[in-house]
Design a protein that fits this description.
6 helices; single chain; 183 residues; three-stranded antiparallel beta sheet; globular; 9 strands; alpha+beta; two-stranded antiparallel ribbon
């Protein structure tokens, strides 16, 4: 069944003859990443935060913070089919976090304080990177997206998390409606 699926992927999604990077996906099928797929993945990577490993934060795939950068349900399906991401409609959660945790965006930290002392959870959105995706993400230089950063901060703030960061612009939020993640 795995071999049949691999053949079907190759037939449905033929890659460009222009070699960009050869990778092995989860079923050990070697494939070549086309230039278009590489550009798509590079755009996707602007939504990665780091906590030991890269974590894509894709909360609402219809939000313009993603769609304006070419990240749509179609493009996510493409990245899933070529083995770079896993998509889950119910979403993913990082569990067993302590009172404080730190995530990095564009190399700079954002500290999160939860209300409980232990066993806290952080909703990560609908996408995780596969091992192949993680490997490739480490090799890319990604451009920072301030609107996305503020969107994530807004989402976390609306969940009641206490945040500390040097990346938030000087504007002070006074109500939840003003936050970028609360549209």
């Amino acid at each position: 069944m795995g071999e049949l699926f691999a053949r079907l992927k190759r037939l449905l999604f033929k890659v460009s003859p222009h070699l960009e990077k050869s990778l092995k996906n989860a079923d050990n099928t070697t494939f070549t990443l086309s230039q278009d797929d590489r550009v798509l993945f590079l755009s996707f990577c602007q939504f990665l935060w780091i906590q030991g490993e890269p974590l894509p934060l894709i909360f609402d795939i219809d939000d313009k913070v993603y769609t304006s950068q070419g990240i749509t349900s179609f493009s996510l399906k493409r990245l899933e089919v070529i083995g770079l991401i896993m998509y889950e409609p119910r979403g993913f959660v990082k569990k067993r976090l302590g009172k404080h945790t730190r995530l990095f965006y564009a190399g700079k930290p954002t500290k999160i304080r939860f209300s409980n002392e232990i066993n806290n959870q952080l909703y990560l959105g609908h996408v995780l990177l596969t091992n192949t995706g993680k490997e490739m993400a480490h090799s890319l230089s990604v451009q920072r997206n301030q609107l996305f950063y503020e969107y994530v901060i807004g989402k976390w703030f609306s969940q009641g998390l206490v945040l500390s960061s040097i990346q938030i612009k000087s504007r002070k939020y006074t109500t939840k409606q003003e936050l970028p993640g609360n549209r």
